[in-house]
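Re: your question from the hallway

Yes, I did run it. Sequences:
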Amino acid sequence: MPAPLIEMRGITKRFGAVKANEAVDLSVAPGEILGLLGENGAGKTTLMNVLFGAYAPDAGEILIQGQPVRIASSADALAAGIGMVHQHFHLAPRLTVLENLLIGIPGRSGRIDRAGGLARLAEIGRQHGLTLDPNLPVSALSVGEQQRLEIVKALFRGARLLILDEPTAVLAPTEVDGLFSALRSMAAQGLGIIFISHKLNEVRALTHRCTVLRHGRVAGRVDDPANTTSAAMAQLMCGHEIVPPARGPSTPGAAVLTLDGISTSQHSGTALRDVSLAVRAGEILGIAGVSGNGQRALAEVISGVRLPDAGQMTIAGQKVSGYSPREVQALGLGRIPEDRMTTGLVTNLPLADSMVLPRIGTAAFSSRGLLKPDAIRAFAEAQIKAYDIRCPGPMTRAGALSGGNLQKALLARELAFDPKVLIVSQPTRGLDIGAARFIHEKFLDMRGKGCGIIVIGEDLEELLVLCDRIAVMYEGRIVGTLDSADATVARLGLMMTGAEGHS
Amino acid sequence: MSAVFEQIFQVGFLAAIIRIATPLAFATLGEMFSERAGVLNLGIEGIMLLSAMTGFTATSLSGSLWLGILVAVLTGMLMGALHALFTVALGLSQHVCGIGVTLFSSGLAYFLYRLIFGQQSVPPSIKGFETLPIPVLSSIPVLGPAVFNQFALVYMAILAIPLAAFVLYRTPWGLSVRMVGENPRAADSAGVSVIGTRFQAVILGGALMGLAGAFLSMAQFNAFTFGVVSGRGWVAIALVVFGRWDPWRSAGAALLFAFVDALQLRMQASGLGHIPYEAFLMLPFIFTIVAMAVMSRNAVAPSALLKPFRREER
Amino acid sequence: MFRLEVRTSTPAWFNLALPLLAIAATLVLCSGLIALAGAGVIDAYGVMFTASLGDSYAITETMVRAAPMIFTGLAVAVAFRAKFWNIGAEGQLLAGAVASCFVGAIPMPGPLAMLLMAVAGAAAGAAVALVPATLRVKFRVDDVVSSLLLNSVIYYALMALIEGPWKDSFSGYPISPPIEDSANFPVLLEGTRLHLGVVVALLAAPLIWFLIVRTTLGFRIRVTGENPEAARYGGINVERVLLSTALLSGALAGLAGVGEVGGVHFQVMSDISPGYGYSGIVVAMLARLNPLGVVPAAIFLAAVMTGAEAMSRATGVPAFLSDVIQGTALLAMLVALLFTAYRIRRVGAAR
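Structure:
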């Protein structure tokens, strides 16, 4: 095996009291694709941000070809030949492809070196088959093309090590194949690649070697991923065998949420096209799909913040007319948003305020325009106890809580009023195993009580264990719905590319 | 109608538009650079006032006009750096810091002016800039005397527009400015210093605001009065929006505002005697508010405007 | 090495300590200007203090000056809570002054006149504040810029009024006709200018505090300001909250103008407000947007203003020092607020 291109030794990184990384060792050789595996929140992204100079480690050292280096900024990382493709692309949508490439590159005689940039872009295109139109604004590119631009950006700067953080999360399965062949060709030419993922099948298909993180520490290494079972790797990731939550049989009742021919017009995301679906009482319906295929618009319509152009929606048999959050709540809808911090909670105010927010106008928490501070406090305290939300008390700033506790707080606030329908997006993203389990059990609990639940998710494994039926979205349409007994990752994956399924 | 038409194409009227537009063009370009980098600078009104004062004072004491300009520009840069220190380095609210910088700068301008010149019944004045006709060009009919028989600062403003466009769109630094204003994280991961670039842009903006202030006290009025800026800074902020954060459009917006302002000055003078002249002074401000209402729906501000950048935020 | 760490909560004593820290820093920084003017720093601040808070008459004068700033401070505090960037309290104050002057000049029984003056002034201020709020909600116009520009419009409108229809034809001065004597606010202490409006201002602060902390409207204002998206998803009509906030904020600023007309000047002139609207921003920030904190913050600024004039007469230091102090205090307070979000922690030397 050749000498390591990059070596990280004993890296520790703390955020306040939380140790995101602790004594992590890792190395990549030229031409090697290393898988960095771990649950959400295991510290993969933090570790790579340390390598890329975004975070300063509290302890440990980084060696490049055996020489210790100090990487204090991304400029240092780039100079050391490290390139990173972040999960959220670092691109300016309103600037052109070429401008995004040339940012930070010295010009020629004081001007942006357009000609040099174009030549280099063409060369990279030839070498790795990564072609892009230099004059398009980035906003005109598809997600896959934007990712390609990010890779080209790293190569453009002469990266010898390429870090990709969950690159497949935004891609359809066919696009994943294209990405993998490009990565293999780069490795064949001597590049080192770190591939971050929590998807075992992808790691087994692509990587030469694997480092597994758990709770910020190295939980183990896998030298031959292709010939190691997923179960063994999963055990490394989780520390125990995954026991899927017990999902007993259910007898769904009447439909509690129906969408009939819902369409929306073009907005910032993908529009809905003639979406019809029904969730019955005591049933969990999953919505699968590559992100950006209309899931956001669907959640917005159901939550009452987006008015559809056509179609009808009913909640508990009542027709929704005004599409305001207040109306759908009054009809019995509960909502657990994907982005807890932006549309769920008010981070700068006390936790109690966030917990009563959707129902502040009801008799439970106010009368004649006056708040009932004692009732608000009592409610928050009761929920904190019931859901074991770890915080000093209801008057703590909501933003000070951890992700899992925030998710519990949101769950508590919605479930306290026995919703007839619950809409949930990415319910366990960023949570540790324990918190995720708790959330899953609560959903099954609600299902047993006759609540209809709609779960929008990207993690197919999670949807498969949780849902009774799974609908797949593609370009704003529902391409098919499967009973989870008939559904497999492969079948859902195919439907996610737009292939029609059987309802 | 034709009477108005005749007035517009009078040389004096055109020259007045150019003169009124000059400080606005400097100020608008200055604010544009700052905002393009993601920093709203509400300190502009106070920075212009303080620069008008320091430039005037330096000239008054030294007798050198260009020394005054230099001092005004340095004042603007210093106050820009102060605003950047608060909003970029410390990440404080751009709105409130800007108001703070304006209050502080205006207070300081009044205080120092009174300290240096005392209370005089006739405010001191300087021999300000004189018009500098450009040979050949100034003899073009109508346009020549209106545009090419102006103060040196006017020519500087005219040159500043293409120069600003070149810097913003054609140089690596301009690209960095646009990038830190759109997606600072992208700039950061490409090795561009977000903090540094923002500082530079806000300081450059301050320099241009300083020029704007200096023009008022050293070319237009040749004296410093407490009302020498009287809202022109706020107008410049509106003109940036109106000009969609683009140098050419912003300069065009300044010209349009100057046209309305020159028009109301003509109306004041044109014997509508029973209407107090203050009624006309309102017009350009009302025009600006209406123009913003018309334009704002389509105007897209730099994505990272008002957002401080902290690397380790999770 | 030191580093900033995010705080999870702030101790209650910060509410008092931070403004005091900011004020102390301001006075230290501004002492340089006093020295520059050739006066003794201790002397100058001493004169400022005795002239503004040194005896009961001085205190009443300071309170009379504080009253309009309590109102504008409350106006700004309420608006900023909702992140409605109302920088237009100055114009709203002037509108309130004009409207109340108009009503006060109509002969009618005193108490009725005072009540109607207040109603008219509040309504005028609210109407002015509604403009930037509506422009923001309907046309996405930046409220900072529009409310600032509106200040100029209102100012010139007032000037046009007192140079035009209201001009004193006898003396030729640009001042409005005085309001009826019966409409003059009663003086509370013989021999001082302490008028009824000051008490109303002092009562307004706890009232607004109650509104912000204990009512559903206040809850909606707070949530909308902190996170409009969460508010919207939580069923709050964010646009309506912004418009309500604007009405409330503008009405409070308008009342500042009413007090100046009814209790101090009894007419309208061009310099009826020495920038009380802008001072309101400083007051509100020093108070950390807490309505109860607005009262001491306003008294502090009023003392600085009153004291600065006396200091200028006694030592020759320009009275504009009070403007510098205001600006410095605002900036110092912003820096001090960093301590609420972060704590400075000593960490071991980096290897």
